[in-house]
Every structure is written in structure tokens, then in C-alpha cells.
Amino acid sequence: MTERPDLTPRDRMQIERHDVPARSAVIRSMDFQEVNLGYSQALAMEEAERCLDCANPRCIDGCPVRVNIPQFIELLAAGEMKLSAESLLGDNALPCVTGRVCPQETQCEGLCIRAKKGEPVAVGALERFVADWALDHLDELDSHIDPDTGRRVAIVGSGPAGLAAAGELAKSGHKVTVFEAFHAPGGVLIYGIPEFRLPKDIVQKEVDRLKSLGVTIEVNAIVGKTWTLRELRQNFDAVFIAVGAGLPVFMGIPGEDLKGVYSANEYLTRVNLMGAFRDDTDTPVLQGQRVVVVGGGNVAMDAVRTARRMGAKEGIIAYRRGKDELPARDEEIRHAEEEGVKFELMASPVRIVGNDENWVTGIECQMMELGEPDDSGRRRPKPIAGSEYVLECDMVVVAIGTRSNPMLTASEPDLKINEWGYLVVDEEGMTSVPGIFAGGDIVRGAATVILAMGDGKRAAHAIEKYLGTVGKLMPAAVAKAAASEGTAGESPAATT
Fold first, then answer.
1. Which residues contact 376 (CB under 8 A, 6 or more apart)?
2. Domains (ranges, CATH) in the chain?
3. I want to staple 149 with a disulfide (CB 3.0 to 4.6 A). Which of 144, 172, 173, 237 is the partner?
4. pTM for this one?
């Protein structure tokens, strides 16, 4: 093995963090090509030298999927690309994705010891570099798959939680079938996150790599409609529900039914999944000239930056708190500013204004001031009486969050849900129905890709434990009853 350069911790502390090269804001704001260019190998290896290889690597504690960060970085610094890639892929089912969209600054990098005296190691950029290298050299990598266990696991949803669980279970020798409602796998990775942040060919390559492990993916399969959960449970030894929380939340103010008002879910799905940004698509989407996006998270930044790329002369974020309280990643806010996005801060919408033909002409906002912190730790906004004003626009995108879609949960009355409509699980991730597990946004509410992946990885280990402690999970009486009802011939078992 190539030796890592013999540098002292003092030497390493003298190396400054390397910014990730990015495309020009002027050029990139007019197309959907990826913004960040990533490290060259020389930059990656020099950045890797900044890692102090701590005796107690707190960065691992900050990672929801428990990547052995010091190990893959040390191997990278030594030039051992194959071993570094194998180490990373052994811990993370989707490293090309997390290296691009994970909020490292509040997780692994936030706990990096170097951050106490300067900038943390650029873990996310290094992860992306190694993961991209791995995709280009898959035939050189060793991947261990346990012998076939004879067990079959169904996963409902092919987003980050579902794919993470699929990868773990497939490596353990189980037959995994993923059921996806859309016509393409990836979940929020393809319908929610824009091409300029996460190229769809990258997602597809990650999916193809999971397929090479033996994972089967069934698309256009709506569990709750095409098949019921009960049918899946009858034909698989365990089920993992990872359908996310895709039902949009609106503000509940007058004018939200006007023409020109989108939820961020619909807007981004039309553009990302249905390809409305391409010239060769039939998918309709409005192209406003002055677009206001309500919200301050990553989804809001995705929507407003998408609107700019769709031709909007002005893209405006309307947010009811100040800049310091914006929940979006610092990088996304910075990129939005570089691309000409404007921020209407301390502004809370109270009404959407329209003309006689019911088209949006503006959004009325009320100015706010910040009071005491709320449960989230952010200062609570309070309205200023008599401060209303109208922000002119011809399109509004509401990006204030999502909640659970009741279609699946309503199809299985034995599933216990909480007051917000999310599935209730025990400490092992199992729902109220034995053998059916759940994780990701359908359990925790709208969160990040990496938190969903962490849930998927933990659920896979819980399913492993479950499969090792139970016998045949489909009693003969249940199978006989299913057959007598005419469901067995139409069940997923016939198609997988």
C-alpha cells in the first residue's frame, strides 16, 4: 500500500481548505448542467491531507449512515483509490448522492475537530470525488455479497431510504424487490432535486449499481392501488415502507387557488422528472417572468433557482424570518445569490392577488419582527400591524414543507399512525403490523436525504434481525385464504 506522506498534525493544520470549483454563475443560471465541478485528484489528495486522523473521530458520530470517514480519507491521501472506494461503498449505498446534497456542514464536518481552529475537512467534496471515481471503475472493485438466504423483502418506495435499505439487504443475500409508483426509480432524488444539483444520470448509475447486487425494481407500481400492503406481506418475508412525505402543504391564505400558483412538489416534479425544461418534452409548465417562492429551505432554493433557469427575469424568495434563520444550506443560499436570486426577508404572505381572469398578479405580504426563540431554536416571527404591501409577480411557488400522503396508510387500517398522519414504529423500526417496517419521511416527517438513508440502513439491520428470529412468515392458512379470494394469482409474487 502506498504510504501517506509523513506530515505532522501541525503541518496538516497549515493546509488551507480547498473550495470546490464551480461553473460561472452567469453561465450556469441559464442551463441545467451541474453547478459544482468537483475536485481534481490533486486537489482531493491535498484536501485529504488536512485530516488529522483523530483517535476519536467525532465525524463518524455526525454521519447518519456511519461512514468510516477517516478510513476512506486516509486511503485517498495515500493514493489507494480502489481501497478508498471499497471502504466508502461498504458503508454508504449512495455516496455519489450524499457527496452532492448532504448537509455535511451540520453533520460530519460540523463535528470535525479542525473546525475549532479554522475550516473543517471538506468531507462532502472528498466523498463525491471518491464515489465518482468508483462509478468509473466499478469493474475494478471487489463487492462482497453473502450467499442467498432464500428470504424475500419488499421495499415500497425507491427514494433514499428505500435504496439504502435495498443495498444493505442485497449484500446480505436477501432477494429484494423495490416497488416504485413513478415510471423511474429514485424518488425525491429525481423528482425533487434539480439536475443542476444532482444530475439524473448519476442517480441512474447508483440505481444500476444496486441492480448489479441483485436488487429488482418494479416501476409504475402503486402500493395501495396496484397492490395492497397485505398482498406484499403475504408474498414477502418482510416489507419496508419508504414512501416519503410527498403531500404538499399550502399556507391556507386567500388566492392559493389562482392560476399561476404551484406547490414546490408539482413545480419541481414537472421540471425534473417530466423534463419540462427540455425542448423535446410535452410536459406543460408555466414560465413566469417574476416568480416569488415562499419558503427558506433547500426546496425553496431549488424552486427559485429552477425558475431562473426556466427564463424568469426575477426570482424572489419570500421568507418570514431573517437571513440568519434561513434553514437552507449555506452553499445553496450562496449559489442562489450568485445567480441573481433576490431575498424578500421578514415578509409573511397573507394573500395572493389576482386579476379578473384569475391569474396571479402579486402576493400581499406583512412585515415581521423577530421575538423569542420557538421550539426549533429560531426566533419566532411576529407581525407588524399595518405593514402590509404587495409584491408584484406573475407566478407563486409554495415551498413551506410536505406531509404524509394518506393513500398508502389508508389502504391498511391495521397500520398505526400518529396525529400528523405519519407511521408509528417501535425502536426497531417495525410498524404495528408484524413484519412491516418503515422509515424516512413517512415516519419522521420531511427531512434530509441522508437522514432518510440512515433510517433505511438501520431498518435493513432490523429486518436482518427479524428474519433471523422468525420462521416461515406466511402461514399456510393465510396463503390459502389469499388464494380463495383470488388475490394470489394477481400478487407481486407473480411478477418478481
1. none
2. 9-140 (1.10.1060.10), 152-246+404-494 (3.50.50.60), 250-400 (3.50.50.60)
3. 173
4. 0.89
